Amino acid sequence: MSYLQGSKDINMNLTKKIGYFSQIAFASALVFACDQKTEVVEEVVAEPIDETYAVQTEKLLVKIDTLHTGFENPWGMTWLEDGTLLVTEKKGEILIFKDDQFTGEKIEGLPEVSTKGQGGLLDIQAHPKYGENGWLYISYAKTVSDELTSTAIMRFRLDGNMAVDKEELIESQPGWKGGNHYGSRIVFDNDGYLYYSNGDRFDRKINAQELTNSHGKIHRIHDDGRIPEDNPFVNTPDAIPSIWSYGSRNPQGLFYDKANNRLWESEHGPMGGDELNLIEKGKNYGWPEITYGKNYDGSTITEITEKEGMEQPVTYYVPSIATAGITMVTSDKYPAWKGDILIGALAKTHINRVDMDGTKALSQEVMLQDIGRVRQVKESPDGYLYAITEGTGLLVKIIPIR
Fold first, then answer.
1. Confidence class of residue 364 from pLDDT cuts 50, 70 and 90?
2. 225: which residues sit within 8 A by CB, 6+ positions away?
3. How remote is the C-alpha of 333 from its chain's centroid?
4. pLDDT of residue 86
5. Is this structure's pTM higher than 0.85?
6. Of 181, 219, 268, 350, which is the active-site residue?
7. In whole angstroms, what is the distance from residue 336 CA to residue 43 CA?
8. pLDDT digits 0-9 by tens, 227-282
9. Rounded to 5 degrees, what are φ and ψ at 205?
10. Would strands 162-171 and 186-188 be described as parallel, antiparallel, or unpaired?
11. Burial of 64 (0-12, 13-18, 19+ CB in 10 A)
């Protein structure tokens, strides 16, 4: 059953359809008398969850707890070590949440962003050692000139709610006309390298195949912006040295699997041909030389879907679902989903679960249909899954029941 019946009163319908919301556990103190001493023993007792509005997926019964309903265009989210959640708004804001509630506060002192087209303040990621160094990283659309914009990566620290010590680390080259296909996700690997995705900038597809520009690529840098000496094209004449892989169209999803040292990417195809890719050093992912999609007017981009020297997607989507942010389920709270990849679907307004066997995609499941344009889905440090949506403007927490 759809969560939304019609387009009127979206939030009212969501309250009815996704209104699944309660506290999930409490601690019960049992007091025992023993040898004339009073000993307090705490036993965690799980309170039964109200299943009135529970959602049955193929493998799990879950409850969707709506934590916030006021977003315009949320894009990225990250948690700090004290449990604080930061969520970016495309228009250039970072909202501060504590204990799953919006504090009403926002981070001040952020850089100006270009909000042309798909541009704006995009992803945010805390440094893996945030507790030691305090660095936060953002990707955003930067104005280069009156006509040109670019994807930039900046880091900063917080002084209260003020962004300080701002450092721009890298800017995709060259600046480009138009406001489409910026990417742009940020992840760190086990060695502290930063990866970010950059789109092909839309109107010149072949950018993705040329190593002389930054567009349509996954990039790898040190956490301070330096270029790693072992990047695959550092010694290639005229190549952008930060390139890690190429041949991507508009990658709006990145996830680093720490347990297996794997980098996963999702990217928008044109009309059809969205992809989930396992990203590896120096490899070519084919766009636009090979694709399972067509131009938006229905015309053919290429008849070729496979070519020697170009990687095949792990899975792809025809028609497009408009793949956005992704995560892999690593938490023991969702045993039936563990190891699976969840992908936010913008156009098709759901969360897509890809049943994974290692690096092999098996089946797909459409979950939470009509919840909104899912821009990002992410696992919190305490093991719960969260998602942010456009249109419906939600921050939701997915609570497993059984």
1. very high
2. 153, 167, 168, 169, 170
3. 20
4. 98
5. yes
6. 181
7. 27
8. 999 999 999 999 999 999 999 999 999 999 999 999 999 999 999 999 999 999 99
9. -55, -35
10. unpaired
11. buried
Q: Report cis status (omega within 30 of 0) of the bond before 111.
A: no
| Torsion 381-244-175-309 (CA) sign | negative
Strands 74-79 and 37-45: unpaired
The residues facing 48 across adjacent strands are none
Q: How far apart are CA 19 and CA 52, in angstroms?
A: 9
Tokens of 263: 């980098």
Contacts of 267 (CB under 8 A, 6+ apart): 197, 248, 249, 250, 251, 252, 253, 274, 275, 277, 285, 287, 323
| Over residues 25-42, mean pLDDT | 36
Active-site annotation holds for 222: no
| Tokens matching residue 353 | 């679960």
Please report the DSSP string for 103-160 in residue order: EEEE-BSPPP---STT-SEEEEEE-TTHHHH--EEEEEEEE-SSS-EEEEEEEEEEET
Q: In terms of residues, how long is the chain?
A: 402
**Which residue, among 183, 124, 178, 202, has the nearest Cα to 323 in the 3D structure?**
183
Give the whole-angstrom CA distance, residue 13 versus residue 3: 7
- Please provide residue 318's backbone torsions phi and psi, each rounded to the nearest 5 degrees: -135, 115
* 3-class DSSP assignment, residue 85: strand
- Residue 46 has a pLDDT of 55
